[in-house]
C-alpha cells in the first residue's frame, strides 16, 4: 500500500514539473534576426527578418553598414489559436543590396516587450564577386511596386491662358498581379486653374503598354482644367491606396497558386505645364477673355408690337471654349425703351476636349411710345488658340417698330437721330363741319355755384395738403436713410449675381458651378479685374487692400473652397441652401464696404 502511494506521489510531482516547464516555455520571449543567406554575390539581394513571439514597441533596427536598404521596414503579424493555445508572431523585414565585397556584420536590433528591452545577436555576412544567377529575393511589396503604376496624362503641356487642358489618371496593372480595390488619399486642389470633373461611370480594364511592356489599365479620374494665369503652373499629384493580390511560389492542395494581399500607396507625381499669355498684338479693345471657337448672335422675339407690350432680346454665344468664364457683351438700347435686368441662361456640357454649348442673356424690353427703335449692332471678340489670332464678330442691326401707343417727344423715339424729321400723327378725320341745328337740352334751374358738389371740389385740395406733407416727409426719411438704402442696393445686387444659382438649388453640380461664377462675376464687375487674376491668394490680397473686413474675406474664400470641394464630396440640399444664404450675405457685406 505504501508502494502504491509512493508511485502516485511521484507521478503527481512529475506532472507538476512538466506543467511548470511548459508554462515557462510558453512565457519565454524570443526576439531573433534571420538572414535569407550568410554568403551572397554582390549582385544579389539579402532579406533580413527580425521576428518576435510577443508584441513589442520602439523597434530600433541596426545601421546596416556595407548595405543599402531598398525596401523596408515592412511589417507582418500572424496570430492563431490551435487546441486552445495561442500562437503569435510579428516580423520586421528589410531587403538589402551590398555596396562592396568583403565581410560585414549586421549589428544588434532592439525592441521593448512588456517593459523590458530585448536584443538580437549580431550576424556576419560575406559578400563575394557577382554570381551568374543572382538570387533576387523579392517581397510581396517589391512585386507590387514593379507591377503597379499611376500615371497622369496631360493633353497639352504648353496651352494658352484659358485654353482647355485635360488630365486623365490611369492605373496601369501588370498581368502578374490583380487589384481588388482602391481609395483616394489626397485629391489635387488645382490651384490657379478652373477645374471641372468628368465622372467616370464605369471602370473598364483595357489593354495597353507601359514602358514597352504589356499592361492593363483603368481610367480612374478625368478632369478638364482652364489655366487662370500665365507661367509655369503645377498640377498636384493624385495619391491612392491600392489593395493588391500578389501571387507567391506556394500552391494549394489542388495545385492553384496562393495569393497574398498587400496595400500600396501610389502617386501620379507632380506635372508642370507652361501657360502662354494671350498675345497683346491685335487684341481688340472690347476683348473680355473668351478663348475658343465661337458664334455670336443678337435676336429679337418680335419686331412689331404695341406700346406696353414686351419683347425678348437675346444675346447669345455658342461653340467650344471657356463658355463659363467670360461676360457677354451688352446691347446699347434707346432710352425710350424700358429694359429689365437680363436673365442668364447656360446650356454647357464639359467633355474631355473642353466645354461645348451656349450661354445667353435674355433682356425683357417694354416700349412706352409709338415709333421706330433700332437695336444697334454690337461686337463680340474672342481668341482662337488653334490659329493664334483674335476674331471679332458683329451682330446684325434690329429695328423694332411700335405700332400703337402714346406719342413720345422727339428725344424718345428712333426718329430723334434726324433733328429735321418729325413724326406727324393723324387723329381721325382732318375736316369737321359746324352743325347749324345743334341738339341742345334744358339743364334746369339748378345752379352749380353753392351746390354740394361745388363745396366738395372747393375744400378737397385743402384735405389733400396733410397727405402731401406726410408723403413728402416719408420720402425724405427714406432718402436720408443712407445705411438702409445701401442695404437694399446690396441685397438687390446679391440677388442679381446669385439668381442662376438659386434656380439650380437641389442640383449639386450646376448649383456650385453657378455659385462660383456668380462670385467671380461680382468681383469682375466691382473691382474691374481680369479672370486671370482669380486665385484665392490674389482675391484675399485685393479685398484686404480695399479694407474689407477679415471675416467677410474669409467668408468669400470659404465659399470658393466649398465650390471646389463640391466636385469631390456629396453635399446635401441643406448645405446648398446654407451656402446660397451665406453667399448673399457675403456679397451684401462686401458691397457695403467696397
TrEMBL record:
Cross-referenced InterPro entries: BatD (IPR025738)
PANTHER family per UniProt: BATD, PROTEIN BATD-RELATED
Keywords from the named record: Membrane, Signal, Transmembrane, Transmembrane helix
Transmembrane segments: 454-472
Protein name as annotated: Protein BatD
Signal peptide: 1-24
Organism listed in the record: Flagellimonas ochracea
One Pfam match: BatD
Keyword Transmembrane helix: yes
Tagged with keyword Ubl conjugation: no
Amino acid at each position: 500500500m505504501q508502494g502504491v502511494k509512493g508511485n502516485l506521489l511521484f507521478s503527481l510531482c512529475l506532472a507538476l514539473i512538466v506543467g511548470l516547464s511548459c508554462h515557462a516555455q510558453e512565457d519565454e520571449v524570443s526576439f531573433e534576426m534571420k538572414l535569407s543567406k550568410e554568403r551572397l554575390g554582390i549582385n544579389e539581394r539579402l532579406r533580413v527578418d527580425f521576428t518576435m513571439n510577443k508584441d513589442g514597441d520602439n523597434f530600433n533596427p541596426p545601421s546596416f553598414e556595407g548595405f543599402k536598404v531598398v525596401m523596408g521596414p515592412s511589417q507582418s503579424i500572424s496570430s492563431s489559436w490551435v487546441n486552445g493555445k495561442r500562437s503569435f508572431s510579428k516580423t520586421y523585414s528589410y531587403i538589402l543590396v551590398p555596396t562592396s565585397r568583403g565581410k560585414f556584420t549586421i549589428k544588434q536590433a532592439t525592441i521593448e516587450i512588456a517593459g523590458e528591452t530585448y536584443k538580437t545577436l549580431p550576424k556576419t555576412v560575406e559578400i563575394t564577386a557577382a554570381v551568374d544567377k543572382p538570387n533576387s529575393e523579392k517581397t510581396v511589396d517589391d512585386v507590387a511596386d514593379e507591377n503597379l503604376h499611376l500615371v497622369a496624362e496631360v493633353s497639352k503641356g504648353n496651352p494658352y491662358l484659358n485654353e482647355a487642358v485635360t488630365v486623365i489618371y490611369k492605373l496601369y496593372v501588370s498581368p502578374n498581379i490583380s487589384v481588388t480595390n482602391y481609395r483616394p488619399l489626397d485629391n489635387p486642389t488645382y490651384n490657379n486653374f478652373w477645374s471641372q470633373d468628368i465622372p467616370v461611370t464605369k471602370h473598364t480594364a483595357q489593354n495597353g503598354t507601359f514602358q514597352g511592356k504589356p499592361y492593363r489599365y483603368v481610367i480612374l479620374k478625368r478632369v478638364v482644367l482652364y489655366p487662370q494665369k500665365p507661367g509655369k503652373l503645377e498640377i498636384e499629384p493624385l495619391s491612392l491606396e491600392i489593395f493588391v493580390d500578389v501571387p507567391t511560389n506556394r500552391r494549394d492542395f489542388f495545385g492553384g497558386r496562393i495569393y497574398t494581399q498587400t496595400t500600396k500607396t501610389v502617386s501620379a507625381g507632380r506635372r508642370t505645364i507652361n501657360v502662354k499669355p494671350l498675345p497683346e498684338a491685335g487684341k481688340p479693345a472690347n476683348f473680355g477673355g473668351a478663348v475658343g471657337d465661337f458664334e455670336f448672335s443678337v435676336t429679337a422675339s418680335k419686331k412689331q408690337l404695341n406700346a406696353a407690350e414686351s419683347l425678348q432680346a437675346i444675346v447669345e454665344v455658342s461653340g467650344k471654349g471657356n463658355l463659363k468664364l467670360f461676360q457677354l457683351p451688352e446691347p446699347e438700347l434707346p432710352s425710350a425703351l424700358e429694359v429689365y435686368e437680363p436673365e442668364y441662361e447656360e446650356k454647357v456640357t464639359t467633355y474631355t476636349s473642353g466645354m461645348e454649348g451656349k450661354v445667353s442673356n435674355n433682356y425683357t424690353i417694354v416700349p412706352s411710345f409709338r415709333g421706330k427703335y433700332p437695336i444697334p449692332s454690337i461686337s463680340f471678340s474672342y481668341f482662337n488658340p488653334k490659329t493664334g489670332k483674335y476674331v471679332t464678330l458683329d451682330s446684325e442691326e434690329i429695328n423694332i417698330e411700335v405700332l400703337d401707343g402714346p406719342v413720345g417727344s422727339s428725344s424718345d423715339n428712333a426718329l430723334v437721330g434726324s433733328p429735321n424729321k418729325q413724326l406727324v400723327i393723324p387723329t381721325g378725320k382732318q375736316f369737321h363741319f359746324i352743325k347749324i341745328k345743334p341738339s341742345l337740352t334744358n339743364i334746369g334751374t339748378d345752379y352749380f355755384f353753392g351746390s354740394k358738389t361745388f363745396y366738395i371740389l372747393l375744400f378737397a385740395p385743402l384735405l389733400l395738403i396733410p397727405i402731401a406733407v406726410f408723403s413728402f416727409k416719408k420720402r425724405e426719411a427714406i432718402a436720408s436713410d443712407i445705411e438702409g438704402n445701401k442695404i437694399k442696393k446690396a441685397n438687390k445686387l446679391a440677388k442679381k449675381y446669385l439668381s442662376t444659382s438659386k434656380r439650380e438649388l437641389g442640383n449639386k453640380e450646376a448649383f456650385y458651378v453657378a455659385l462660383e461664377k456668380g462670385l467671380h462675376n461680382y468681383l469682375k464687375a466691382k473691382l474691374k479685374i481680369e479672370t486671370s487674376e482669380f486665385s484665392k491668394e490674389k482675391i484675399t490680397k485685393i479685398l484686404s487692400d480695399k479694407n474689407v473686413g477679415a471675416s467677410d474675406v474669409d467668408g468669400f474664400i470659404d465659399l470658393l473652397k466649398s465650390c471646389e470641394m463640391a466636385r469631390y464630396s456629396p453635399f446635401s440640399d441643406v448645405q446648398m441652401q446654407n451656402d446660397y444664404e451665406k453667399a448673399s450675405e457675403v456679397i451684401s457685406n462686401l458691397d457695403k464696404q467696397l
